[in-house]
Amino acid sequence: NLKFAQPSMIQSKAVPLIMNEPHQNVIVMAPNGSGKTGAFSIGSTARVDPTIDEMQIVVLTNSRELCNQVANVYELLTKGTTITVQNFAHAKKKAHIVVTTPGAFLQMIGQRGAPTTKKLRCVVMDEADEFMKDDKSFGDILKIKKKLEGINFQWILFSATFKKEYLDNQVYQLMEKAQIIKLESKKIAEKLQHIKQYHLKCEPRKKLEFIMDVFETCAMTQTFIFVNTKDFAEVIHKKLRKNGLSSYIMFGRMTKEERDDTMQKFRDQQINVLITTNIIARGIDVPQVELVINYDVPTQKVNN
């Protein structure tokens, strides 16, 4: 269903560690595009016992969009099996694998009649470093750990990178020991030669003109435009629409339903240009995208 012909480097290293006994905590650091989602989804699915009709795998993501994407991978992976997948924690439904956000998971297990966590085998954190950047996000993770006290489960943390301070502090609060796998970005650089990067120095007021030049010169394709503020997104959106281009804005204050609908329309190519802030900058995979424009310089430096 996922059209995997052979494992990537990170999959060949991580999947056996997740699957095989004794089950140890696992921390994986690997660049985007290296096959991290396939690694933790295959490894954790292999640990499910479909004869036990209880929640066994919880996958935590930092956004609804990433939640939908990861859940889709699990659904394709388990198609034709009796293993069940739940996208976004729901207290009235039971599933072997639950893909959700920390807040939704805490809300679910706090309700009367919620599915039991007693048979839990793995807690996966995708883009794990995102949960460690502020006290609120990591506070939810610590609350989950406390709720799961007494249960023998495996922590599985995946991210492009971890700051040393995260490993020394936040990660240590979750687990004392873990197997760490680190794949250097240079090891997969040769596989990404098809990605070309360019930068252009121009006056601020000329940026919008440049974007219009791009779309006049190139054939229309699926495009992400990243900006720092919603105000700039509105300006670009109006200009593109005025020139007959199919664009849309996605930002944090939209309802969950609006964000889901917008992302699906973009995947289905009903929308050609998606203008957004960094709410979907991490972990999102849309194979149809051929152009990414950073309209603004990011305000935070990540991975040096």
UniProtKB/TrEMBL annotation:
Record domain Helicase ATP-binding: where: 17-180
UniProt keyword Aminoacyl-tRNA synthetase, yes or no: no
Keyword Ubl conjugation in annotation: no
Name of the protein in question: ATP-dependent RNA helicase
Superkingdom, natural source: Eukaryota
Domain Helicase C-terminal per the UniProt entry, residue ranges: 194-304
EC number: 3.6.4.13
GO molecular function: ATP binding; hydrolase activity; RNA binding; RNA helicase activity
Family membership: Belongs to the DEAD box helicase family.
Keywords, ordered alphabetically: ATP-binding, Helicase, Hydrolase, Nucleotide-binding, RNA-binding
Catalytic activity annotation: ATP + H2O = ADP + phosphate + H(+)
Record remark: domains: The Q motif is unique to and characteristic of the DEAD box family of RNA helicases and controls ATP binding and hydrolysis.
Parts of the chain that traverse the membrane: none
Function comment: RNA helicase.
CDD domains referenced in this protein's UniProt entry, alphabetically: SF2_C_DEAD
